[in-house]
Amino acid sequence: MIDLTLSKKAFEEARKYMPGGVNSPVRSYPHMDCPPPFIASAKGAHITDIDGNTYVDYVGSWGPMILGHAYPKVIKAIQKAAEKSTSYGAPTEIETELAALVTKIYPSIEKMRLVSSGTEATMSALRAARGFTGRDKILKFAGCYHGHGDSLLVKAGSGAATFGSPDSAGVTKGTAKDTVVVPYNDIQTFSKKMEEEGDEIAAVTVEPVAGNMGCVLPVEGFLETLRRETEKHGTVLIFDEVMCGFRTALHGAQDFYHIKPDMTCLGKIIGGGLPAAAYGGKREIMNCIAPDGSVYQAGTLSGNPLAVTAGLETLKEICSIPDFHKTLEEKTKKIIDGWKNAAKEAGVSVEIHQSGSMFCLFFSDKPVLNYEDSCACDSKKFKAWFLSMLNQGIYLAPSPFETLFVSYAHSDEDIERTVKAASVAMREAAKA
Predict the structure, then answer these.
(1) Are residues 215 and 334 in the same domain?
(2) Is residue 240 annotated as part of the catalytic site, yes or no?
(3) Alpha helices in 259-404 (DSSP H)
(4) Catalytic site residue from 178, 240, 373, 414
(5) Where is the domain boundary, 269, 293, 320?
(6) What are the Cα distances from residue 245, in Å, to 24, 209, 305, 325?
(7) Which listed residue (268, 331, 381, 383) is catalytic?
(8) Which helix (H) or strand (E) holds 230?
(9) Is the four-CA dihedral 122, 118, 120, 400 of positive or negative sign?
(10) 3-class secondary-structure state, position 266
């Protein structure tokens, strides 16, 4: 077992002042029987904790670090911007520059608004859709996470689609009643629900590549059905690409799957590792946003110059590096192939999914198509696998419901080390 003495002490101290000792729940390693490593620094594809352990990092701050940690051009740009002050609360030209670049990369986004988090983006997009349509209800898919806004912390009932029930204390039953939940990838149930209530639904929001029940890809015809049914009923189709944006492909999952949504939410990479996100879409919808329209949304730090600088520099880099996404996809496939071979040699059944530089592993002997399938995977094997990989210096998400990420900084040596560690970890999983 790696030495996490200092991290354990830091965690105990943190618990005195913060709920669970963390500022986001998954960071607490709730089911792993070990303290979370407290991080001191990161560079490239590596992350180092306060105990001096260095890991190959496949979390990447949960997705933003597509270039790797402390990418020199991004850091230099942030430092230069910081010398001019960290915030103005006033318009800057660089905000327009970032918006212009994003709308060029995402043609479906005709206008956009910068915010500070993915949660803000999804909440604001839904408010805009409600304001635009004059309707109250929204439809989401079980297992798709769209931030911690009240109306989005709702899950499906047992089995078929139903009106949601609150999935968190503090969410009112009234809010839940306006949220309709359908199983992900269930074309028939979705179509039936739209036939019944489509004219009352303001927006259908979806992760076109789900990333919060593990990485789950859309089945053939699923996204096409969403587009067809929303158009039929005058419902706003929102693609939440906070995670898969710039990851599935440069132009997002909407380009990869050839679906044009009405609105798009972006985050993570758009801030280059600093807090930033955006929502945008059709001009007529976005013109409903204040001060042009009656849908109010604001933010003191929206368009923060440091975050905008980091995001702009990151996007410029990934657009300029030849074969950037092809390279990332090939790196990811090498890892996946190595893990599959390790599982086969250990006699362990796994499902491994990939979307660009996103990937994840399920301990399952059947296809994983939705949240129910994900929940049915073997959690004991995952725990054994995770702890073995951590002890070998491979930093993975401490939950089977999280997606992993490859960065441009991951070297052949990093990948070889990861594959080698997987052989040991799969044998441990086989015993669980």
Answers:
(1) no
(2) yes
(3) 283-286, 305-320, 324-346, 371-375, 379-391
(4) 240
(5) 320
(6) 22, 9, 21, 12
(7) 268
(8) helix 222-233
(9) positive
(10) strand
Pairing verdict, β 201-206 and 236-240? parallel
Supply the pLDDT for residue 163: 39
Tell me if 351 sits within 8 A of 368, measured CB to CB. Answer: yes
The enclosing domain of 316 has a CATH number of 3.40.640.10
Last residue within a domain, chosen from 302, 320, 338: 320
Q: Is 264 within 8 Å of 280 (Cβ atoms)?
A: yes
Task: Give the residues of the chain that fall short of pLDDT 70.
Answer: 150-151, 153-168, 172
The pLDDT of residue 146 is: 87
Contact 205, 139 (CB under 8 A): yes
The answer to whether residues 148 and 342 touch, using CB atoms and an 8 Å cutoff, is: no
186 and 84 assigned to the same domain: yes
At 264, which helix (H) or strand (E)? strand 263-266
Alpha carbon separation from 176 to 139, 154, 155, 156, 166 (Å, rounded)? 11, 6, 9, 10, 6
395 catalytic residue (yes or no): no
Q: For the CA atoms of the chain, what is the radius of gyration?
A: 21
Domain span at residue 21 reads: 5-70+323-431
The single residue of 145, 184, 371, 408 carrying the catalytic annotation is 145
Between CA 68 and CA 70 the distance in angstroms is 7
Number of structural domains (the chain) is: 2
pLDDT reported for residue 147: 81
Instruction: Output the pTM of the full model.
Output: 0.95
